[in-house]
Structure formats: structure tokens, C-alpha cells
Design brief:
Structural class: mainly beta
Order of helices and strands: HHEEEEEEEEEEEEEEEEEE
Low-confidence stretches: 1-19
Helix content: under 10%
CATH superfamily: Outer membrane protein transport protein (OMPP1/FadL/TodX)
Shape: globular
Radius of gyration: 19 Å
CATH architecture: Beta Barrel
Number of strands: 18
CATH topology: Porin
CATH class: Mainly Beta
Largest sheet: 14 strands, antiparallel, barrel
């Protein structure tokens, strides 16, 4: 039994699996509460932790002051009259000048109706997506590092209608005193075949980012900026500011501007404004973020 209408609904329910020309854009969604509170900025920052660098920047791990970082996240996002749930966990470990990171993230979306080819109801389905990733990285001296990530993702309406993708990130990072700069390519991978047998590219991009931290006694401020040029022709730029007290309490603000080509109605990562906060005490870290009009994410972790 063909489910033409279900396929259309599936694309909408899974946060634009095919967003006007690119496939599975959810693999670029930020699920780390620390960086989400900065609207996705922070790829070059060491203060946002390394637990989710398998979905962020693996090159941070070998230059981090922490040997281990673990965290879990949970979030909800409004979706019509219902809501979507987001969940996952990540970890990183540094062994001298080498780093390893891994993460799992998933999403479950509101139930949608299925229809037969003749237009009659044929049941319901609950769309889901998930991502797993493994990252490896190494440092050259005290200021330069490189990292790479392999990622596998699925977006499923049910057992019969599932999209899959594999992709990779390659990043380099340079740090000097209070300034860190990173650059690389993100979400490189083969095209994804849709249920209608059309192929679409992943939301791959060239990324550059920088972070600069300024101290004022017990207070500090860090300014972060990330820029992505998507190979689909889109551009995204995020600016975030984090204020902290004794590296124990954090407030975050962020804004992201995303442009779209004339034939791309939805950018791979949309424009947004965000706020966030965090607390770190005896190695235990709690972070929370709110996307204005969108999801709320919270995470609990431990780093040492």
C-alpha cells in the first residue's frame, strides 16, 4: 500500500528532512545546551565543554584542560498542538596529545496520520531521528590541533520508510593565549536517496569560527562567532556572548542569521535568538538553553 501523503507529512514532521534541496538538515541542529544558548556559536571555545565535540569540533579535545567530559541532554520543542522530545549523551577523553569523542542524539516527534493511495486512513506513525558519531583528534605542540568525525544518521517514519546518511567533519584549531580560531568542513558525505528515488546533498559547509575571552577579576566575558558557507549556496553566521563568574556561573546570549537562495525557502540551520545559563561546581555541570519560539534544552554532565 503506497503512502504518498505520509511521505509528504514525514518530511515536515522530521524538521525538514528535505529542506528545499538538502537532505536531513537535522544533522546540523545544535543539541549541546551550552552552544545552543549562543545560537550555535562556540565551535572555537574551550569554555563550552567537550562532551559533544563529536557533533561539534573534535579539535578542541586534545588542547582542553579537562581529561574527561561526560554529559546527557534532554529537550522539548513545540510542534503544533503537541511537542517533540530530544535526548542524548556524549563523552570525550584526552590522552596526552590525543583525543577521542563519541555522542548519540535522538528525537521523537508527534504522531502523524498515514493515508493509502486512495486517500483513506491507514493508521498512524511516530517519526524519529537519531545520530551517532565518533571523533578522533590530535595536537601538534601546545597551540595547534586537528580532528575528524564520522557520523551515521537515520530519519524514520516507520520500519518501511527510513532515510539514512553517513558524513564526516574535518577541523583544525589554533589557540594563542585568549584567542582561538578554527576552520574546516562539516557534514561531507554522499547524497541521500529519498523515498521517491530522487537524490539530495547533505547540508555540508565550510566553517570558520573564533572565540576571544577577556577577564575582569572574578568576572570574564567571552565573545564567539561562527560562520558557515553551505555548499547549497546558503550562508549562516552566529554571534554569541558568554559572561561568567569565577568560571562557576554562566549567562549566554546568541543570535544567528541565515540566508537562503531564492529557490531555498528553508536554510539548513534557521535564523534564531537564544538565551542560556549554566552552573559548574566540583566538576558537575548544568547547562540550559532556550531558543526564542523554539526548543528548550537542558544538560547535566561531569568534567575533570
Amino acid at each position: 500500500m503506497k503512502r504518498i501523503a505520509a511521505i509528504v507529512l514525514f518530511a515536515v514532521a522530521t524538521m525538514s528532512a528535505f529542506a528545499q534541496g538538502t537532505a536531513m538538515d537535522f544533522i546540523r541542529a545544535d543539541r549541546n545546551p551550552a552552544t545552543l544558548g549562543l545560537a550555535g556559536a562556540g565551535s572555537a571555545s574551550f569554555s563550552v565543554g567537550t562532551a559533544f565535540t563529536a557533533f561539534g569540533n573534535p579539535a578542541l579535545v586534545p588542547l582542553s584542560e579537562h581529561s574527561y567530559d561526560f554529559a546527557g541532554v534532554f529537550g522539548v520543542a513545540p510542534s503544533g498542538d503537541s511537542h517533540s522530545t530530544l535526548y542524548g549523551g556524549g563523552a570525550s577523553a584526552r590522552f596526552g596529545g590525543f583525543g577521542v569523542s563519541a555522542a548519540y542524539l535522538g528525537g521523537k516527534y508527534p504522531e502523524i496520520p498515514l493515508y493509502s493511495e486512495g486517500g483513506g486512513a491507514s493508521g498512524h506513525a511516530t517519526p524519529k531521528d537519531m545520530m551517532t558519531a565518533l571523533g578522533l583528534s590530535f595536537a601538534i605542540g601546545e597551540n595547534l590541533s586537528f580532528g575528524a568525525v564520522g557520523r551515521y544518521a537515520t530519519s524514520a517514519l516507520d520500519a518501511k520508510t527510513t532515510l539514512t546518511s553517513i558524513s564526516a567533519d574535518i577541523m583544525a584549531l589554533y589557540r594563542r593565549d585568549a584567542l582561538s580560531v578554527t576552520a574546516g568542513v562539516v557534514s561531507l558525505g554522499p547524497k541521500v536517496k529519498s523515498v521517491s528515488n530522487r537524490t539530495y546533498p547533505l547540508p555540508a559547509s565550510a566553517k570558520v569560527a573564533a572565540a576571544y575571552k577577556m577577564g575582569f577579576g572574578d568576572l570574564s566575558t567571552e565573545v564567539m562567532a561562527d560562520v558557515d558557507y553551505y555548499f547549497s549556496g546558503n550562508l549562516g553566521a552566529a554571534l554569541g556572548v558568554q559572561g561568567s563568574y569565577k568560571d562557576m556561573a554562566f549567562l549566554r546570549l546568541g543570535g544567528r542569521l541565515a540566508t537562503a537562495k531564492e529557490d531555498f525557502n528553508v536554510a539548513p540551520v534557521p535564523s534564531m535568538f537564544t538565551v542560556g545559563a549554566g552552573v559548574k561546581l566540583f566538576g558537575v555541570v548544568f547547562d540550559a538553553a532556550y531558543v526564542i519560539g523554539g526548543p528548550v534544552m537542558a544538560g547535566l554532565g561531569y568534567r575533570f
